[in-house]
Amino acid sequence: MGEVLFEEAVPGGATWSHVVKRGTALRLTDVNGGANAGAIFYNAANFSERFNLPDTLKAQHIARLTEGFVLYSDMGRILCSVTRDTLGWHDPLGGCANRALVAEKYGEGNYQTLHNGCYKDALTSFLLEIAKYGMSPRDMCAVVNFFSKVAVDEAGAMSFVSGHSKAGSAVELRAEMNTLVVVNTCQHPLDPNPVYDPKPVRLAVIKAPPAAYDDPCRLSRAENGRGFTLTERYFL
Amino acid sequence: MSPLYETTVLAGEPWIYEVRKGQFLRIVDVEGNQAADTLFFNAHDYEDRYSAQDTIRAQANIYLTTGTRLISSRGNTLLTIVADTCGRHDTLGGACAMESNMVRYQIEKRYMHACRQSFLKAAIEWDRGLGKRDITHNINFFMNVPVTPDGRLTFEDGVSGPGKYVELRADMDVLAVISNCPQLNNPCNAYHPTPIHVSIREAAG
Lengths: 236, 205
Description:
Chain A has helices at residues 53-60, 99-106, 111-114, 122-131, 216-219, 222-234, and strands at residues 4-10, 15-20, 24-30, 37-43, 70-72, 78-85, 144-146, 150-152, 158-160, 170-175, 179-184, 201-207. Chain A is an alpha+beta fold. The model of chain A has no long low-confidence stretch (mean pLDDT 97). Chain B has one domain (5-201). Chain B is built from three helices and eleven strands, in the order βββββαββααββββ. The longest helix of chain B is centred in the middle third of the chain and has 12 residues, at 115-126. At the A-B interface, helix 1 and helix 6 of A face helix 1 and helix 2 of B.
């Protein structure tokens, strides 16, 4: 377990961002159970390089994320590796809700009435946060929903698995590049709960040594070995 | 009805064209099991573009077929699939790139042609501000990429065949960008990429 450099308590429905540096990792913990932590990823040195969902799925032949898998950028490099996971399944398919979907599901919840408990949607929240880094809606990329599971049946039908994440579930993302990570804690767009009730997530930035030659993420597939090689060359 | 426009797109070539609201776009897999990697944009606002995650979430199904509404990043319906003789199309596998080929196959594969080269070439030649930031997660018409219940992504033999086609109605003015996939490293097209035929009509069929 790496030394904790700092921690952050993110309430439900909120957004956080940070450039997670090489040599550190981001630990996400579901505080009460039932959380959803949507996340998007960019190379902090060049925002046009960003998380690429299809490249991540097809390089590893996966439709879920857990320990041993990595998140690829569109440039053949690894932004983050999933180095620890107590849960076993995080959703890369469901995306995020927009304002219309949140209004349709939960009704109106404005600031005048609810103050900081007002209803937020993940898409608007992500766009607002990346705007602080000079990015526009053109720069929005695919979302990974940590702590959520969407099952896919043989006919392709997607169904949200309620009660998937228990209190204390934790996942660690080791930065293989200096990676801008934006986290939003709105509910999953396929969560059937009719009540607006986003759950808190605790974040910790921890020290993490670079991937060794026998690192499980590096060795998990030949593709990932090449991904690490290309990422390491980027810093030479 | 005779088409307003038609063309054959050879493997490894991009195609970029505006389809007006109410027109029908047909893409034909001429020889079978060819991937037509496709992006769509609102013709009047390129920030408003096809979103794979929004499209599959809106219908709660990962496969695209007749009845699928192609949803944009702003939640608009860009086009609707109105006919499909193939049966299912993929939107999770994305487009090949020089960079992803290095990861997937061999670092030495870097110099082989790839879809995202074609997308970028089309974007640059279009010369209206489209660029790499707009090359998002596409549709692979005619590709079969099932997800298993245990969360694996598999690349299965094609469900397409010679002459199978998909037809889409434009629900708003859209810009269509296709890369007819040049991939030579993947058995999905029997290592043999082939032409597609594209046509636009005023009415279905």
